[in-house]
Amino acid sequence: MNRGNDPNPFDDEEPEVNPFSQGAGKSRMPNVVASTLGFGRKHDATVDIPLDNMNDSRKKEKELSTWEADLDRRERDIKRREAAVASAGVPVDDKNWPPFFPLIHHDIANEIPVHAQRLQYFAFASWLGIVLCLVFNVIAVTICWIRGGGVKIFFLAIIYALMGVPLSYVLWYRPLYRAVRTDSALKFGWFFLFYLIHIGFCILAAIAPPIVFQGRSLTGILAAIDVFSDHVLVGIFYLLGFGFFCLESLLSLWVLQKVYAYFRGNK
Questions:
Q1: DSSP labels for 235-254?
Q2: At 98, is the secondary structure helix, strand, or coil?
Q3: What is the pTM of this model?
Q4: Could you report the per-residue pLDDT of 210-244, keeping only the tens digit for each?
Q5: CA dist 94 to 29, 88, 97, 99, 105, Å?
Q6: What is the pLDDT of residues 156-182, one digit of tens each?
Q7: Domain boundaries, the chain
Q8: 260: which residues sit within 8 A by CB, 6+ positions away?
């Protein structure tokens, strides 16, 4: 064909190829990009997104519970060691009672478990009760001595008070305080032994049999009957002392029962 007569002399040239068209004359660039980036193929690798978040949360909860259990175990071990040290008497307790003239260490509110504080307060009232009984016994016997009862019963009443007050604290109240504080079976046994002796003494004092200086060194019922005929005023004091020892005996028996129930319940 004569190109000179051709209205479009550029028809024989290679047609322009659109690289983004879907024709057969497609450029190789999309294939290269596709092969490089991994798009557009049937068996291309997929990105796996983990779907076990619930299992991970359960695992974390399990680890947290294990950690908490370990902390609780360590705390119990520390408390057990502190109790062992306290039962051995290593720590020195500051004296804080009575407030006006501290002689002993006594802090039920901070050292005794909450569920045993009421029991400890009643035991403390029992110890204060025997202190009151012995002090009042000295007063009554002193009046009897002044009225001609003899000086020996006065000295005996003084001995009862000077020995009874500290011994009752050391032998049964302080062991009970430490037993409830540290849950020591040995301390509980020590308390039961000497508290029974304490109850026996209270009952003996309430009766006051005439076996030691006609029994007038103790303000019991028999001593009150004996002195009432001679001096009414002395008899009244002895009757009051008899009432105090009776109340102390009843309170002590009740405390003994409650402490035993507490000891059995803890064991």
A1: HHHHHHHHHHHHHHHHHHHH
A2: coil
A3: 0.65
A4: 876 667 899 999 999 989 888 999 999 999 999 99
A5: 92, 16, 9, 12, 6
A6: 999 999 999 999 999 999 999 999 999
A7: 62-93, 108-266
A8: 192
